[in-house]
Amino acid sequence: GIQVEQSPPDLILQEGANSTLRCNFSDSVNNLQWFHQNPWGQLINLFYIPSGTKQNGRLSATTVATERYSLLYISSSQTTDSGVYFCAVEPDFGNEKLTFGTGTRLTIIP
Amino acid sequence: DTGVSQNPRHKITKRGQNVTFRCDPISEHNRLYWYRQTLGQGPEFLTYFQNEAQLEKSRLLSDRFSAERPKGSFSTLEIQRTEQGDSAMYLCASSLIGRTGDEKLFFGSGTQLSVL
Q: At B8, which helix (H) or strand (E)?
């Protein structure tokens, strides 16, 4: 099946810092989404972004489908940004549905 | 939009017992997914429905797992003869598949299963 690798696995930052999270995937995809899982376990959909660039407030994401990677940018981090960020992809072919990476755990220190 | 609702939030059971979880999707959504998440891992796809049709179930972990969505609205996931390895968070998600094929998943809060 499709492989999804996220980096870094862990990231600790001071409040106000910026960060870039990366997602690499092994096959062409027709669906890519970024999620934030907060400390209470709730998964929140941040972006549907199989290609191109989108922005939502302090967050933005870019997917370069031809090179099989996506980036999530978080600017001016706040403590509420803490949690695990997952990238999930669905390959163009086959019967696999959205497959998640192992995530990046982000901790924002006040 | 009240979001995806899952019940119960927590379930503790003894090995060998059967358990059933319920998911109520966002009302206008036509697709419903079940995922399982264990500690330190990303969610793992189990099965999904489009309306009442179960379109993929080969990823269900064993024949002890089954899911239904009888009227294309709420869904249930049943685990028979539970084992300690079934302990995990069971997540439900729903989506509205559009004409362009764009699909964004919205997750519920999950049911945390502990098998003693």
A: none
* pLDDT (0 to 100) of residue B1: 53
| Contacts with B99 (C-beta within 8 Å, 6 or more apart), sequence order | none
Given an 8 Å threshold on Cβ–Cβ distance, is A41 in contact with B101? no
State mean pLDDT over B32-45: 96
Instruction: Please name the residue of chain A whose CA is at the shortest distance from the CA of residue B55.
Output: A95
The string over B54-93, giving b where at least 16 C-beta atoms fall within 10 Å of a residue's C-beta and e elsewhere, is bebeebbeeeebebebeeeebbebebeebeeebbbbbbbb
Partner A, chain B 32-71, Cβ-Cβ below 8 Å: 33, 40-45, 48, 56, 58
Average pLDDT of span B27-46: 94
Residue A42 CB coordination number (10 Å): 16
Q: pLDDT-based confidence at A69, cuts 50/70/90?
A: very high
**Rounded mean pLDDT, B84-111:** 92
Interval A68-94 mean pLDDT: 96
Give the A window 17-76 contacts with B, CB below 8 Å.
Answer: 30-31, 33, 35, 40-45, 48
Token pair listed for B116: 């003693």
Q: What residues does B11 pair with on adjacent strands? A: B113
Q: What share of chain A is helix, strand, coil (3-state, %, to 5)?
A: 5, 60, 35
